[in-house]
Design brief:
The structure is a single chain. The chain is of the alpha/beta class. The protein has two domains: about 5-215 and about 385-400, Rossmann fold; about 235-385, Rossmann fold (3-Layer(aba) Sandwich), CATH 3.40.50.2000. The chain is about 40% helix and about 15% strand. It has helices at about 5-15, 40-45, 60-65, 70-75, 90, 100-120, 140-145, 170-190, 195-205, 250-260, 290-295, 315-325, 335-340, 355-365, 365-385, 385-400; strands at about 50-55, 80-85, 130, 150-155, 190-195, 210, 235-240, 265-270, 280-285, 300-305, 330, 345-350. The strands form two sheets. It has a six-stranded parallel beta sheet, sandwiched between helices. Strand 11, helix 13 and strand 12 (about 345-350) form a beta-alpha-beta unit. Helix 10 (about 250-260) runs parallel beside helix 14 (about 355-365). The two termini are about 25 Å apart.
Length: about 400
């Protein structure tokens, strides 16, 4: 299917392709974000939504795609029920040991099986059902298709790809199951909610309607710091032990910069072991309660990322966190990163070692530029990726499925 033909295909089938300046094509079917506010209170109070979250609120994907929405939706008078497949205490037990990881996946599978059957029996009680990243096994997706008009399947990352960045037979089995399970869930849903154009292209093969919601980010929580810049210039990164490997891409540029700027420091939140000769590195444990405080100690945010089938599905959440905190960023120009970061205005794109050294060096030496890019970056996040705007868009989609609003602006 050619690019232009595919672009027309997306335009015909999209409810709302939000902020879709991407490889799919032009902006299409844009819902006016405040439209749901025009619905009368009685209409809004009647809605009842079931959220099926893959994880608890400690996991970033479920926190941003489900739990962060709940206060705003409930404030609008919406009844929201949540079923969690893999709770936080189970995630904490998922260590690196083979036995513990195998047990984690087995328990998660059976919890998903139980949750799926529960959804089959209670689906009729809800106006809309949003399934976040959870894959149900046969025959559950087929049984849920009778309620297809009210089912939304939300997923971040390219969980449909067979290319797994993590080695090991357990992850390979998990990857294969996901690659088979995602199409089945998309065929069960009325609408797929995705984070970027790359995942939208895949979803459109199986699902009649696609909506892109990137992030969202709570800009009332992630705010700039009031710190006075000291002698140290702090480069910062937030992630996990599983994504620390992406920092290897910039190990050599960091080594060059550490020799050029003795006052340079690298702070890593939630990372595994990582070292660079002659560079002072501070490891900071991740916790939901402290992550914003840690982010506010950064001067520049980093997001190195290889370009492969898995990373093209990333949602750029690190960038949204940095930019909401008023930080200039340097990022690999992979898929959604190119949309979030405006090169030269809110940060820089860096592909080669030379570019990483050049753009980081420019920011290290120029405090005025750091401040200007940081202010512009936060303004961009508020305008396009803020939680309030995404909540309005999500509710407009849910209301359309239940016909509670008469019209949507196309």
């Amino acid at each position: 299917m050619g690019a232009s033909h595919y672009g027309n295909f997306i335009r015909r089938r999209t409810i709302c392709h939000h902020r879709s300046r991407s490889r799919i094509g032009k902006r299409t079917g844009l819902v006016q974000p405040a439209l749901w506010l025009a619905c009368d209170n009685a209409t809004r109070l009647d809605m009842k939504i079931l959220f099926v979250a893959q994880y608890g609120p400690l996991a970033a994907s479920s926190r941003t795609r489900v739990f962060d929405y709940l206060p705003l939706l409930r404030r609008a008078g919406i009844t929201c029920d949540v079923k969690v497949v893999t709770p936080d205490d189970l995630i904490k037990r998922n260590t690196r040991g083979i036995f513990s990881r195998l047990l984690y996946y087995v328990l998660s599978y059976f919890r998903a099986w139980w949750t799926g059957w529960t959804c089959v029996f209670i689906a009729s009680q809800y106006d809309a059902i949003l399934i976040q990243k959870t894959l149900f096994s046969f025959p559950i997706p087929h049984l849920l298709r009778r309620y297809r008009h009210k089912i939304f399947f939300d997923f971040d990352d390219a969980i449909f790809t067979l290319e797994n960045p993590n080695a090991g037979w357990i992850n390979r089995l998990r990857t294969r199951r996901r690659a088979m399970g995602v199409p089945a869930m998309l065929q069960t849903a009325h609408c797929a909610i995705v984070e970027n154009a790359y995942t939208a292209e895949f979803a459109a093969r199986y699902c009649p309607y696609i909506s892109q919601i990137t992030g969202p980010i709570d800009t009332a929580r992630y705010v700039p710091s009031k710190k006075i810049t000291g002698e140290k210039i702090v480069l910062g990164w937030i992630g996990s032990q599983w994504t620390t490997r992406y920092l290897d891409m910039i190990r050599d540029p960091l080594a060059v910069l550490s020799r050029r700027y003795p006052n340079l420091e690298l702070r890593l939140i939630g990372a595994d072991e990582f070292d660079v000769p002659d560079l002072q590195i501070v490891h900071m444990d991740w916790a939901l309660e402290t992550e914003v405080d840690h982010l506010q100690t950064f001067d520049i945010g980093l997001m190195p990322l290889p370009d492969d089938p898995f990373t093209r599905g990333k949602g750029g959440y690190k960038l949204l966190q940095y930019m909401a905190c008023g930080l200039p960023v340097v990022a690999s120009p992979v898929e959604i990163n190119r949309e979030i970061v405006t090169h030269g205005k809110t940060g820089f794109w860096a592909e080669t070692d030379i570019e990483w050294i050049e753009f980081l060096g420019t920011l290290i030496e120029n405090k005025t530029l750091r401040n200007r890019l940081g202010i512009a970056g936060r303004a961009r996040v508020i305008a396009h990726y803020a939680l309030e705007k995404s909540s309005e868009q999500l509710l407009a989609l849910l209301q359309r499925s239940t016909h509670q609003c008469d019209t949507l602006s196309q």
